[in-house]
């Protein structure tokens, strides 16, 4: 039985606590913490046995916590991962692993000192049935080599404090992971473009942005990143291969015919769009810890690879140039 402490009791923190308590076998949440202590106390209304820690570092150090789940805001992830690694705890860190590749390198060094993997990163799309089937087809080779990916990541709106770079580090980070995973390839170069701006972007950040990537084998990727589309949470992905294409399926829905229309609802919340993927992701994490004592999902290396591309994209902003995506050699532990 894995005893988990959760840092960050906002939207996804609460959802993951529900998942771990009510759905995933072989684990229990024993502690939680949040910068905003009332958010942590809220958790105990439904789960009174969960202990609230005012200081997240005390939760990390607590004897009763075997594994730390980090679901606080992006800028806090790296420091909590490093603190949990000091104690050799198991760690599930929501994406991004850190805000920069340099921080990810520190994390990998600290993890490697333990001689085994301790960190899993919350790139849950790898557990989505649609993406998994796309990868199976691409990897089988039946469609020949993959040549291009056309992708779109569209959100309804963003809260206060959203900034242009978060379109990369917080939003497109999912595509930076899933595209290299789908292709089994690493990035060679990257560029972000500012295009005609939407009138819905009134809060001072770029929207839309277009992310362009080239892989080592020469495949090209374009990702439309919209953080205020005003209509839905809409994730699109098409991989163009030599002999055919594969498309990410639309989420399950019921079509309605009425009033001379054919209606297809579009989801607005990421929690609903990837609900099954999150369920499978956390079940798989807990199972792998119970069975082998090491996580088998996305690693610190995967968190690092996405951040290297994100660094290059941010640096390329306004230069009109593709910048090289330069990674360190992959350490043996992550091969
Ligand atoms: P959220 O609703 O804003 O929740 C974050 C919580 O962390 C808030 O309660 C916040 O408190 C708290 N917090 C802020 N600073 C903290 C600190 N230093 N220590 C502890 N807690 C702190 O955000 P969210 O949507 O749940 O996202 C949380 C994380 O999950 C983000 O990193 C996000 O990128 C990631 N995420 C991943 C996915 C996915 O698809 N995998 C989806 C959504 C989110 P205050 O409100 O007082 O700041």
Oligomer: single chain
How many domains is the backbone divided into?
A: 2
Question: In one word, what is the shape?
Answer: globular
- Bound ligands, each once: NADP nicotinamide-adenine-dinucleotide phosphate
Number of helices: 10
> Would you give the CATH topology of the largest domain?
Dihydrodipicolinate Reductase, domain 2
The strands making up the biggest β-sheet line up spatially as 12-11-7-10-9-8-15
CATH class categorisation of the largest domain: Alpha Beta
Helix content: 25-40%
What separation lies between the terminal Cα atoms?
Answer: 28 Å
Mean pLDDT: 97
**Number of E strands:** 15
Order of helices and strands: EHEHEHEHEHEHEHEEEEEEEHHHE
Task: Characterise the protein shown here.
The protein has 335 residues and is of the alpha/beta class. It has 2 domains: 2-125 and 276-298, NAD(P)-binding Rossmann-like Domain (Rossmann fold, 3-Layer(aba) Sandwich), CATH 3.40.50.720; 129-269 and 306-324, Dihydrodipicolinate Reductase, domain 2 (2-Layer Sandwich), CATH 3.30.360. It is built from 10 helices and 15 strands. The strands form 3 sheets. It has a 7-stranded mixed beta sheet with strand order 12-11-7-10-9-8-15, with helices on one face. A 6-stranded parallel beta sheet has the order 3-2-1-4-5-6, sandwiched between helices. Strands 13-14 form a two-stranded antiparallel ribbon. β11 (234-241) and β12 form a beta hairpin. It is globular and about 55 Å long. The model has no long low-confidence stretch (mean pLDDT 97). NADP nicotinamide-adenine-dinucleotide phosphate (NAP) is lined by residues 7-13, 34-36, 39, 56, 71-74, 76, 94-95, 122, 124, 170, 270.
